[in-house]
Design goal:
Elements lengths: L1 H17 L16 H35 L1 H15 L10 H18 L3 H21 L2 H7 L12 H11 L2 H4 L4 H32 L1
């Protein structure tokens, strides 16, 4: 399982370097694209992201972790990996509560229904609702989505650039930039996750002692 996670992260980093795309040097205006084209691109991105990410995170990653460690650690670990996987999309540590909350909800949905389809539908619906706001803040995303290159290509065009983007995103200056209340939420989330994992560990120790 650990090897699989490492391989998945490595693949996530390497894909953009295999088929690099150079970002346009001119400013991009959404008005240059027909509305139907933009809507079609957003719907395509939402469907592709929902299907592939749910298979990867809730299917490939969460299911084996559930069987090995239980549902609580599985959902928390997958949530952190879900956040890390989006670091090169302008996501910082201030987005951790949102990313974790979304991942936990999707993970519970997959766990309770024993199917990835409800999680895919919820994921896709969430992307359709949230993408317009992201789109107007990052119009270059339209160019990437409408290019002939595969949809999984990131902002960076080489492996080293990808590492640089993630490294900068995780630097203290960048990670803790923003509203102090957001930083407080991050610390609260870290404490909550630590408390849950600690309680889970003690429960397992008590059970192991009882069995012995």
């Amino acid at each position: 399982m650990l090897f699989g996670i490492i391989a998945l992260v490595a693949l996530r980093l390497l894909l953009p370097s295999l088929m690099p795309v150079r970002a346009p040097s001119v400013s991009i205006s959404l008005s240059s694209y027909p509305l139907a084209t933009i809507i079609g691109a957003l719907l395509s991105i939402a469907v592709i992201a929902a299907v592939t990410e749910e298979i990867a995170f809730r299917g490939y990653m969460q299911k084996p972790l559930e069987e090995a460690y239980g549902i609580v650690p599985a959902i928390l670990i997958v949530g952190i990996m879900f956040w890390i996987a989006h670091l090169d999309h302008g996501i910082t540590i201030t987005h951790l509560p949102f990313q974790m909350s979304a991942s936990i909800e999707l993970g519970l949905l997959a766990y309770l229904t024993r199917s990835l389809i409800p999680a895919m539908i919820a994921h896709g619906a969430g992307d359709i609702v949230l993408q317009p706001a992201y789109l107007f803040r990052h119009p270059e995303f339209v160019w990437k989505a409408l290019s002939a290159r595969p949809i999984w290509e990131g902002v960076a065009s080489t492996f080293l650039q990808k590492l640089l983007v993630i490294g900068q995103a995780m630097s203290p200056k960048h990670m803790f930039a923003g509203d102090p209340f957001q930083i407080f939420l991050i610390l609260a989330w870290i404490l909550l996750i630590s408390a849950v994992l600690t309680i889970f560990g003690f429960v397992n120790l008590v059970r192991a002692k009882a069995v012995a």
